[in-house]
Amino acid sequence: QWQTAPPFQQRDNHCLLLLPCVSLRLQPTTVIMPEEVVDPMPRLRKECMETQCMTGKENYNACVDRITKNKFGDCEAWYHDWLKCADKCLAPKLFALTKE
């Protein structure tokens, strides 16, 4: 039914075909947050990096020591492996919070 509607046609205060439309019935609203919202992701990621991903941390630190000693190269791959481990640990904890 919506495929045959002309562009910018409006039904029930919704725009069809995801094209911009204007409704004069909309009123501005103000949302007041009762408390400051704190993103739990940095704290949870840090916990995961320091507890569940110690092997990744050890590999990364060993690479940093080698690079510092040899004065060439980088540890990007080891760092990404460490972050991947942390994100794998973090994801279920973070999504569990969104279900509340």
UniProtKB/TrEMBL annotation:
Cleaved signal peptide residues: none
Cellular location(s): Mitochondrion inner membrane
Membrane topology label: Peripheral membrane protein
Matches recorded under InterPro entries: Cyt_b-c1_6, Ubol_cytC_Rdtase_hinge_dom, Ubol_cytC_Rdtase_hinge_dom_sf
Source superkingdom: Eukaryota
Keywords on record: Disulfide bond, Electron transport, Membrane, Mitochondrion, Mitochondrion inner membrane, Respiratory chain, Transport
GO terms classed as biological process: mitochondrial electron transport, ubiquinol to cytochrome c
Main localisation: mitochondrion
Domain Ubiquinol-cytochrome C reductase hinge: 39-96
Classification via Pfam families: UCR_hinge
Gene Ontology, cellular component aspect: mitochondrial inner membrane
Keyword hit for Membrane: yes
Family (UniProt): Belongs to the UQCRH/QCR6 family.
Name of the molecule in the record: Ubiquinol-cytochrome C reductase hinge domain-containing protein
Organism: Entomoneis paludosa
Lineage of the species this protein comes from: Eukaryota, Sar, Stramenopiles, Ochrophyta, Bacillariophyta
